[in-house]
Amino acid sequence: MRTLDGSGKVWTIWNPPGRFTKNPDMVRFPDGRLMLVFCETDQHWALEFSKITTLESSDGGKTWGNPRIIASADITKGEERWVTPRLSRLKSGRLVIVCDHDDYHYYHVDRPSGIWMWTSDDNGRTWSAPHNTGVKGIEPGRVIELPDGTLLINAHMVFRDNFKLAEFCMRSADGGRTWKDLAVIAKDTTHNHVEGHILPLKGGALACVLRENNHNGYPSYCAFSYDQGRSWTKPKPNTVHLRTFL
Length: 246
What we know:
Blueprint (H helix, E strand, L loop, with lengths): L19 E9 L5 E8 L7 E9 L7 E10 L11 E4 L5 E6 L2 H4 L8 E6 L10 E2 L11 E2 L5 E8 L6 E8 L7 E7 L6 E8 L5 E7 L8 E5 L10 E2 L9
Antiparallel strand pairs: 1-2, 2-3, 3-4, 5-6, 6-7, 7-8, 9-10, 10-11, 11-12, 13-14, 14-15, 15-16
């Protein structure tokens, strides 16, 4: 694994006693500062609490601090757990966090949306109230901004015609207030395609790297879009080195 400083060194940056930290995502500011978002819980599948938390680093990730809790859930009081926060920085400088609620309640197309959004226009010092995106499914990817300002978000869920999990994306032309034009990224009768990450490539194409969740030894898969996420190629085993496209 290549580290930001090129040393190959791996070290613990945050480890509160009795806490479980998971599902991190990170952005870099133009001045080099880093911001990290993650979910802090009592255990991997939280039974007591979950907190969407940010940390910051001004020395290339060597040290971290300034923790801020963006949202918290007291599961013992019936509040829905937070699961997978994702962090993006748009061209305007706006920060966007998206995060899903409890998997079991929102994994099917016939369930309501459990994916929420927060925004910050002051580099993460303050955040907006949460806004339900209306996007269904679970485990969202980070919000991606296209050259024309359109935003993409991806997630996965079970469709009515298929008992397998499938990855999809939606687009927003109004800064994330509304989302439409659902496009399936990966869906078939064999694989559980989940937890995709959309990556812009040279020349304007998009790649979506996917986790396969059958636990039967399948490799990860990758699909490509050449029309800004409106349609996607048939996913193939991830044996192509994406570095050649970057």
